[in-house]
Design goal:
Blueprint: E1 2-7, H1 11-28, E2 32-37, H2 40-48, E3 55-59, H3 67-77, E4 82-87, H4 93-98, E5 103-106, H5 110-129, E6 132-136, E7 141-145, E8 149-155, E9 158-163, E10 166-170, H6 174-180, E11 186-190, E12 193-196, E13 200-204, E14 207-210, E15 215-217, H7 220-238
Parallel strand pairs: 1-2, 1-3, 3-4, 4-5
Antiparallel strand pairs: 6-7, 8-9, 8-12, 9-10, 11-12, 13-14, 14-15
Length: 247
């Protein structure tokens, strides 16, 4: 299910959007939950209470809290949500880049522009969902972007995920973790560690230096495979085998 929020202080405009988005959802036969907010502070409150949205359409000009302010606050709680601004003033576009806005829609052209933006949003979400790791238990669901994972290691019965901004864990074997991950981006460096190839800065002999400054020692059996996997990965991703790295 795709969760979408629309925020605009104009009730009549929200009613128009409701008709347009409902028509789009029916035509595309997709499963969405759409919520509408006239008060931007209520959406922000939902984010602070860990409510999740995939897409947020934000009116830029609102009296309680403008869309730019709201976007900054949303980013504090969710860095992955797609933000689309609704505006009649194109001068806000430069500011929008600072909060990583997905796009802008002119209110005057909402009927023509909304379907195109939604098409691109759905494609973006589909591509993204192929590159996230999901931890799901009875008490929580946590989505982790592959790009945020530096490495994973075994501690007791848990797999510990070392991320760009902290750590998290899942009660699962490393072998099961590896089965859930993409084979292209992750590699076992030895029995107790899985490393994200994109976070390797340097390989010297058997020592691997990571983007967070930590160093891991690969087994003799693994180091040749890791070098080969590095070359294949960067050739595929960047059209080069080393991207300026020392291997």
């Amino acid at each position: 299910m795709i969760n979408i929020a629309f925020v605009d202080d104009n009730k009549e405009f929200l009613e128009l959007i409701n008709k347009l988005i409902h028509s789009y959802i029916v035509s595309k036969k997709i499963y969405c939950k759409v919520e509408f907010y006239q008060n931007p502070e209520l959406l922000y409150l939902d984010f602070t209470e860990k409510k999740k949205f995939d897409i947020c359409f934000l009116d830029i000009e609102m009296p309680q809290m403008n869309g730019i302010e709201l976007a900054y606050k949303i980013r504090e709680n969710d860095k992955l949500v797609r933000v689309v601004f609704l505006t009649s003033h194109k001068e806000f576009i430069r500011v929008g880049y600072k909060v990583k806005a997905f796009d802008f829609i002119s209110k005057e052209d909402i009927r023509e522009e909304l379907p195109d933006v939604m098409d691109r949003l759905l494609l973006n979400l589909e591509e993204y969902r192929e590159s996230i790791y999901v931890i799901q238990t009875n008490s929580r669901i946590e989505k982790i972007s592959y790009d945020d994972i530096i490495y994973i290691y075994k501690e007791g019965q848990n797999a510990k995920f070392v991320l760009k901004d902290g750590e998290t864990q899942e009660r699962i074997s490393l072998r099961k973790v590896a089965e859930k991950l993409s084979d292209d981006e992750f590699v076992f460096v030895e029995r107790g560690y899985i490393i994200n190839l994109s976070h390797i800065k340097k390989i010297s002999s058997r020592e691997i230096e990571l983007s967070n400054g930590e160093k891991k020692l690969a087994s003799r059996e693994r180091i040749h495979e890791i070098r080969e996997r590095m070359n294949i990965y960067y050739l595929h991703e960047f059209g080069t085998d080393k991207r300026g790295m020392r291997i």
